[in-house]
Amino acid sequence: MATLPNPLPTLAADPSGRSLGLGLPLGRLIDETDEGPWHEPLLWHAEYAASSGAWSALGVRAARAGLLPVLIEVGGSQGGPGEWELMPGEMSYPGDHDAEEVLADFWESYAEDELDDGELGDDEQTAGPVHGAWPGLAEAPSALPADPDTRAAETADALLDEGSWFKDPRLALVPARRSADIPAAIGWPGPLNHENDVARLCAVLRSWEDRFGIRVIALGFDQLTVSVAAPPTTQEAAEAVAAEHFAFCPDNITQGHHQTLREYAAHQVLDQRVWSFWWD
Fold this sequence. Notes:
Strand order of the largest sheet: 1-4-6-5-7-8-9
Largest sheet: 7 strands, mixed
Oligomer: single chain
Helix content: 25-40%
């Protein structure tokens, strides 16, 4: 995968990151992968749980140093990223993939079979078109009502305040070109049963970045959470996005609480500033 110069090795000799214009708390560099230590650190994360305001305090300065913030869950049954068996060597480059082609491929491979099997209800319950060819990308809103980076900081703070989303969240920094690339940059294995090359999913995240102002704000072992600056504001628009979510992560619906596209769109997409995905 094509990469930018990595500032993280600097932190080995300068743990506070002052030479990078940062003032980091005590933290840890992660280079553990499924094949042993990587040739350079993949990410840094704080040693102590993140609290509200941590993202805002560090995010702008980190971006100037070539590092992007993300919350990392280390309190799950799979531990933190040092135990996730990261796979950076398996990743391609997100810019080499077309988001619509990726989603159409997923739709053909996963979504159409699930819908045809009736698991999401009949045509009266689901958002059409539910059979046949991939319905295409949802239309982008005419404008972003909020700055995506500001919305990301606000959303991260809100999730940390709420407390129910994480057991032990840590603020992490990742060398990546854009927020959508963070999963591929660290070789995240979360969707392993759905897609081994996470760069293909990152191509979709890039498209959502462009159309809806999303930012990747949290990663667990198999969970991905994004903030949304411009969520759909009508049921019809939400259903179009729900089709993309279904192709991107079928488990969200087939193993979720809302088992029709229409229900999912109404409860998880419409006016929602957070989209969350989970792969079994």
